[in-house]
Amino acid sequence: MAVTANYETVMIVSMKKGEEGIQAIVEKFKNLIEKRATLKNVDEWGKRKLAYLINKESEGYYVLFEFESTAEFPAELDRVYRITEGVIRSMIIKKEED
Fold it and tell me: Do 89 and 25 touch, CB atoms closer than 8 A?
């Protein structure tokens, strides 16, 4: 059996994508995580003001995913974040065991 760990990832989607575009990106990543890991929770924080301008944008749509996977998957998820148009920032962290 493969060794798994718990992870959290937050992504910020560009508001320029519009409501339908944002939901399409959220669904894309939800499906990707479900396919390669065990998705535990999806928390859509919605539109929030950014701390500083990113690509001349002051607001973004925040989404938090919690999942359990093998150590290889977060690197692949990060790669997909980087090549997906509309994702302006992302972060993946490994959660400490309780």
Answer: no
